[in-house]
Amino acid sequence: MLEVYYQTTMKVAIMAAALALAGGCASLAPQEPASLAGTSWQFVKFTGGDGKVLIPDDKSRYTVNFGADGRFNVRFDCNRGFGGWKSAAKNQIEFGAMGLTRAMCGPESLHDHFVRQWPHVRSYVVRNGNLHLALMADGGIFEFEPLR
To answer: What is the secondary structure of 117-142 as a DSSP string?
Structure first.
């Protein structure tokens, strides 16, 4: 009987130690934002549903800032815009109508691509510190890194 007690106690102690270690490791992982509100990002790349990758010449020319008030501000190369955003459920996002300046950007600009695709963003995930905005129907993914 005493042997069963020691075996049970030992199993409980081992499980408690394993849980404590797992909890300690989890706290070392980078913390992902609970919400996009108050965050700012700059564009890294776009990967289309067809596998085509678009990379900007200067990623700082493509930025998005999410306000805590449900407003967003963007820079799409030589133009700037603003509008509303909402997240009705975890990892879902939708952008409202956007006001955007209409300067003519250079031939290598990704401005037109952003303007065409932005209304189709439907979900997001923050993975390894980067924001991934996914288009509906597997149309592609915009990847952003934190704006420093």
So the answer is: HGGGEEEEEEETTEEEEEEGGG-EEE
